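Example record

The entry below shows one chain as it appears in the dataset: sequence first, then structure tokens.
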Amino acid sequence: MEFILNPYALTLIISSLLVGGLSLFIGLKVEESVRWIVFAMLSFTVWGFFYGLELTAQTVPEMLFWSKLQYIGLLAAPASWLVFALKYTGVDTSNKKWVFPSIFALPILTYIIVLTNTWHHLHYKSNWLITTGPFPLLGIEKGIWYSVQIAFSYVFYFLGTYIIWKRFRYANIHFKLQTRLLIIAGFFPLIINMLYQFSWLKPFEGLDMTPYAFLFTYLFIAVAILRFNLFNLKPVARDKILEVMTRGVIIFDHRNKIIDFNSACKNYFPNPIQVKLGNLAEKIFFDRPEIIDLLNNQERQIIESKVKFSGEESVLKIEAVPISDSKALVSGMMLLFDDITAEIKINERLKKQATELQQLNDLKDKFFSIISHDLKGPVFGVKELIHLTQNGLISEEEFMSMLPEVSKNMEHVAILLENLLAWTSSQLRGEYVQPQILDLNRLVTSQKTLLDRIAVEKSIQIELLGFENSWVKADKNMLELILRNLISNAIKFSNPGSKVVVSNEDLGDMQKLCVKDYGVGISEENLEKLNQGISFTTRGQSNETGTGLGLLLVREYIIKNGGSLSISSTLGEGTKFCISIPKAIQPVSLV
């Protein structure tokens, strides 16, 4: 082959080698998705280099030989550009494995047609030698597939450039610079090629200026990449950083217009569709002026804002971070969103638990003090009485006269011990509730029988009303302790000669059991303490002692059995305790 160099060929060959060398160097520095622009640049290098060699050839066969080699780059370039655009902008093709192979289908088919053109002349109908210019050039008569190749190449270039423009038209200034350069790289050579195709830009017949436009454009892009680290942080990497953040991120420019955001931020908006590039903050936060103020202040601040999602109120922590340029001028604001509803609830729960723990410790100290007195007094009194009787210091008649008082004291000790054991069990290891169907009439009657003797000693009558055919579902031991405490408490605070009324009312799915006494009543202050579950002690009408532990157990056991407690009282008239218990149907076997 004879090579005769000319300025046009030499320019193409040198610029191709320069762009090719820079492309290989850049390819070693950037990551896989950005590396596709390197493949595009190398494709233009192949195109330009072999077109330069074609311009040195002197015969048609030689020119066609170099033409077939240059078509490797000419066809690979638009496909590489489109793949670069898809990967650079982070388009998700994970569920469409066919996308990238299909992009290269037409270029591969076209290259096969170029190689076999002499069989069918689909690409070139005919070729001849143009000798009217300063050096020989290849003349061509275009075949039908030549137009197809031009069409899909233009589509690939335009589509890739549009994808880049659409993704970053509202991006920050760094990505805007990249986008503008890439749009220039996509459109400028195409404009030159269009002028060539319409024969509007030809220094002389047969010379294609398109490879020059591509090579000079990409030489400029290569210098920009190396000089400004243009792809040091590619958008895909930036996207991955944002997307792994669980906090919502929205970035605004100096006009309060959204220029970037991550998908997590949409979880913090009742209407996520409002969050899109280019939207103004005033439009998104029109009903939340505190956020607009946060942006306008242009200072680092943290606020809490309440918002409703599906009828439920959530608390968001919003942090504003100013974005400054190299001159320390605020060019935008970044808002970070975090849902702290659960955190606030946990903190409130911890505060409540801390308060309850303190109350429990106070109650424990109080109980130990009371128990040491209330248990110690009666037990030591019985011990001393036995000791005096054994030594003959007290006669049998005197012992028998003291026995009723001793018996009464021991009744209170027994109730105290029972409550103490139940409370200790519930606090140390919890209570295992074993609900069963119970005959409420039988249960109340048995408790009345147990407490009748204490009532008789105070001339108090216990009345039972409305318990016929009443069945409940509850833990038997717990319900017995509830009834025993309520009735004994009513006896304790009743006036001698009065009565205690224990009644029942059917409420449909619940049984409402009330214990009413006609005694001194409870003051408003103490009634409020009872309704809040705060323990306190008072002495009964006959100076009976107490610990306040019984009512605590009553409240706890009722809740564990799915019921509720209500208390009403009037000073000087009496008190009424009412509990609700889940109703049960009478077992068939017992009908």
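Notes for this example: The chain has three domains: 7-235, 245-339, 348-590. The chain has 18 helices and 14 strands.
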